[in-house]
Design brief:
alpha/beta, 2-enoyl-CoA Hydratase, Chain A, domain 1, three-stranded parallel sheet
Length: 244
């Protein structure tokens, strides 16, 4: 589900969960536990990447449909907790976007301090699916992209290839696939070497204080996700995607 390695003091967290690293309850709980531990261990920085053709294709909507209300009630808080935990890690975090980063997968990449993309497409497609964003996701996107680019990304619900994503500010750098991890580890190490750990942690806390303070739970989000699971909207969307 998650593979954890270390290179020169940099922890490399690799999502290895199914074909496209879809975010389900179990993966979210494992990610939160992993990043919670990384925040206090001896690693100096972190690289987050995926496997196969995807960084993460976002929320596992089939699990939402199959699990119904009980699953949604457990899943949405877990999703927000994971976003906050990755976002708030007090060490440099670099996303090595090896493939598609869609919806929640794009938010997960945005939660990192630096994003390097090699392949696939990236975009937040929630409005095309017909579900609202958790507040944590919108705050992370605004922080990472800037408010106007985040607004454009959210409302367009589109996906961009690496060069277009770089131009739009969704990633900070483009890399050949063959050197993606090497480049990401180097960037993470550079960030860690540049600043004493305590100074980096305090500065990151200061920068993130306002968005973190606004990441409260919005009950309307839960209500609309429950409706989408129950009225057939998610099932129709996933069936249409499967038939393409």
């Amino acid at each position: 589900m998650i593979e954890l390695d270390e290179t020169d003091g940099v922890a490399v967290v690799r999502l290895a969960h199914g074909k496209v690293n879809a975010l389900d309850l179990e993966l979210l709980e494992r990610l939160t536990a992993t990043f919670t531990q990384l925040d206090v261990d001896s690693s100096r920085a972190v690289v987050l990447t995926g496997s196969g053709r995807a960084f993460s294709a976002g929320v596992d909507l089939w699990r939402i449909v199959d699990g119904g209300a009980a699953y949604v009630h457990a899943f949405l808080p877990a999703l927000e907790t994971t976003f906050r935990t990755v976002f708030g890690l007090g060490k440099p975090v670099v996303a090595a976007v090896n493939g598609h980063a869609i919806a929640g997968g794009a938010v997960l990449a945005a939660a990192c301090d630096h994003r390097i993309m090699a392949a696939g497409t990236i975009g937040v497609t929630e409005l095309a699916v017909g579900v609202p964003f958790p507040t944590a996701a919108l705050e992370i996107l605004a922080y990472a992209y800037g408010i106007p680019p985040a607004r454009r990304a959210v409302l367009a619900a589109d996906t961009l290839d690496p060069p277009a994503a770089l131009t739009a500010g969704r990633v900070d750098e483009v890399s050949p696939a063959g050197t993606l991890i090497e480049t990401a580890v180097a960037r993470a190490r550079e960030m860690a070497d540049r600043t004493p750990p305590e100074v980096f942690r305090i500065t990151k806390e200061q920068l993130q204080a306002a968005p973190l303070a606004r990441m409260g739970t919005d009950p309307r989000v839960l209500r609309l996700w429950l409706r989408a699971a129950e009225d057939g909207r998610l099932h129709r969307f996933m069936t249409a995607v499967r038939s393409r």
